[in-house]
Write a structure and sequence with these properties.
about 0% strand, 2 domains, mainly alpha, about 170 residues, Arc Repressor Mutant, subunit A, 10 helices, elongated
Length: about 170
C-alpha cells in the first residue's frame, strides 16, 4: 500500500502528537495517547479499504484469475490427489497474500474466497451429476473430499438439494 503525501502527513502528525504528549506526562497522558493511536488505526483502516475501491479493474482481473486457477486445479485432477485447494496455494500463484486476496474478493463480490471455492465445487459437481454416471462418492473424491458426507452437506447447503435429488431432476 502506498500512502499519498497528505495521508503520510496525517500519520506523521499523529506520531508527533504522541511523542509530544509523552514528554509531559500527567493524569490525562494515557487516554490522550490511546486516543491518538486509535485515530491512527482508523486512518490506516481507511487507507487499507480505499485501495479496494480504487482498484476495481485489478480486482475484477483478480477474480477472473482466481476462478481460472481454481477451475484448472479441479480440471487437472489435483483435487483427487491433494484434496480441496487452499487459499494459500491460490494466492501464492497470483503472488499476493491470502488475506489480501480474501479481502479483495469480499470487497468486490461480498463473498469470501472460501465461498468462491465452494461455488466452483458445486458447479463442477452439478456438471458431473448431470452428465456422468459416477456415484456421489466418486464425484466427492474427484472434487477433493475425504468423506462423501462432507460433500453432501456442502452441496445441500448451497443448492437445497441432495446430490441424488439433483441428479434425479435430470432423469
Amino acid at each position: 500500500m502506498h500512502l499519498s503525501e497528505k495521508e503520510e502527513q496525517s500519520v506523521t502528525e499523529i506520531f508527533t502528537k504522541i511523542t509530544n504528549e509523552y514528554q509531559s506526562i500527567d493524569i490525562h497522558t494515557q487516554n490522550i495517547i490511546l486516543t491518538q493511536i486509535e485515530l491512527m488505526l482508523q486512518y490506516c483502516d481507511r487507507y487499507y479499504q480505499r485501495q479496494f475501491i480504487t482498484r476495481k479493474k485489478a480486482s475484477s482481473t483478480l477474480l477472473v484469475r482466481f476462478e481460472e486457477i481454481v477451475n484448472r486445479y479441479f480440471d487437472s485432477g489435483k483435487a483427487m490427489e491433494r484434496g480441496l485447494p487452499s487459499l494459500e496455494d491460490i494466492a501464492s500463484e497470483v503472488n499476493i497474500s491470502p488475506r489480501y486476496m480474501s479481502d479483495m474478493l469480499r470487497t468486490l463480490t461480498g463473498q469470501s474466497a472460501q465461498q468462491h471455492i465452494q461455488d466452483i465445487i458445486v458447479t463442477k459437481a452439478k456438471e458431473k451429476l448431470s452428465t456422468t454416471n459416477l456415484s456421489v462418492a466418486e464425484i466427492a473424491y474427484e472434487l477433493g473430499f475425504e468423506r462423501p458426507q462432507s460433500f453432501n452437506k456442502l452441496f445441500k447447503n448451497k443448492t437445497n438439494f441432495t446430490p441424488l435429488a439433483f441428479r434425479a431432476s435430470f432423469n
